[in-house]
Specification:
Layout (H helix, E strand, L loop, with lengths): L1 H19 L2 H21 L11 H19 L2 H10 L1 H6 L5 H29 L6 H29 L2 H18 L11 H7 L3 H13 L6 H28 L2
Keywords: Antibiotic resistance, Cell membrane, Membrane, Transmembrane, Transmembrane helix, Transport
GO biological process, one term: response to antibiotic
Membrane topology: Multi-pass membrane protein
Length: 251
């Protein structure tokens, strides 16, 4: 109970900060929505080549994973500001669990991601997406897991670098191959053989494939097991890294 209370205190403070300045939430939502509105129609003449029948049923899952990756990976920037303002230093003198300091922030990030995912899925349905409702719910769960992993990693990276000038290039370097090799915009099956083999080693590619299969109503494909396994593993590793970083920072 004490741990949950500590998480709740951190969460309430973080959510109040977001409500006072919702710009980051809006900006994080605009990119996938613009992709959906501007890039989605371009896929309609090509969708049969990807083995899909509906452009938005194919495209929305990729946008969900992109939202989880790109939106959550920038969560650590606010932590750098808190460190600079002395908030982290003030928290280190409290008896609060270091894990609670991270989980409270992660709860804020996951809630923000969930709201954005609901908006994105709702827009997809409005544009003609034909997705399994149960598969859509499971796909959103995968998105939340990968987003939570990225948010935890982002917080750990923020406390490690303590500089936006260092953190931003690191994120950009990581995000570029992730975006290209995960098949978020276009399936890797249309690429050359060497690129397909390279994408096999990209965990987020399996998460994207699993989310697309779930949206399509397939609940038994091997890619779903691979995607779910990778999402859980990445979340666990990122949570461990983030907790270890908070503990080291407050030692």
């Amino acid at each position: 109970m004490r741990f949950l209370r500590e998480c709740s205190i951190v969460f309430r403070r973080q959510i109040r900060m977001n409500l006072r300045n919702p710009a980051w939430v809006i900006i994080g939502m605009l990119q996938p929505v613009l992709y959906l509105l501007l890039f989605g129609p371009l896929l309609k003449p090509l969708i049969s080549q990807f083995g899909a029948a509906n452009a938005y049923t194919f495209f929305v899952p990729g946008m969900l994973v992109q939202l989880g990756l790109f939106g959550a990976f920038f969560a650590g920037f606010s932590l750098i500001g808190e460190w600079r303002e002395g908030v982290i230093e003030a928290e280190r003198v409290t008896p609060a669990s270091r894990t609670a300091l991270l989980v409270g922030r992660l709860t804020r990030d996951v809630l923000q991601l969930l709201v954005q995912a609901v908006i994105l899925v709702g827009l997809g349905y409005a544009l003609g997406m034909d997705a399994s409702f149960g598969g859509m719910l499971l796909g959103v769960v995968l998105t939340v897991l990968i987003g939570g992993a990225c948010a935890a990693a982002s917080n750990a990276l923020a406390l490690s670098t303590k500089s936006e000038d260092v953190m931003a290039p690191v994120i950009n370097v990581v995000m570029m191959p992730v975006l290209l090799l995960s098949g978020i915009l276009l399936p890797m099956t249309i690429g050359p053989q060497w690129l397909q083999r390279a994408s096999d080693f990209m965990p987020t590619r399996w998460v994207v494939d699993a989310t697309r299969s779930l949206f399509g109503g397939d609940f038994s494909g091997h890619d779903i097991w691979w995607g779910t396994g990778w999402a859980l593993l990445l979340f666990a590793l990122a949570l461990w890294w983030g907790t270890a970083t908070f503990r080291r920072e407050n030692a």
